[in-house]
Amino acid sequence: MAIIGYVRVSTNDQTVINQKQVITEKNYNVEKWFSDEGISGSVEAAKRKGFGSLLDYIREGDQLVIVGIDRLGRNTIDVLETVKVLQSKGVQVISIREGFDLSTPVGQAMLTMMAGLAQLEKDLIAERRTAGIKRAQSEGVHCGRPVKVTPGQVKALISAGMKPAEVQKSLGISKATYYRLRMDL
Length: 185
What we know:
Helix content is 49%, strand content 11%.
């Protein structure tokens, strides 16, 4: 029986060190660590490189220790399926933050609620992000990738007598972009 640790952070600005520290401070002697750094919890657990390796490595009788259920994912169905796969392999899943036994009916009910809350949090973050982008756009802030070619540049080259194909080649734009920018003139 081995104790396996799994840690995940969503952005490259975050670090897994804090999660590892929480697990070791709870006196779990982790034999092997698996991690996914800069990977969103909305990506299915089995499709994450680190978690996929964990699934290949982990054996019956092992314990998987995580800081919280949300480290497994932020999609209720995916989290429930992930725990089900682990339990079918005979793996005990230990979530430090929630502190309940996932193998009991009460633990399963709590898992479902916690996974649902993780998904709700993800959805609220997305909603706030979308609202922030819309507000910024309404204030005239450009959102998205930088504009490389402007309608004015296209107009200047057309005025200089260049043909459409020459303008496209000169500015490095596609035919569709050329005609879209011409419509903005």
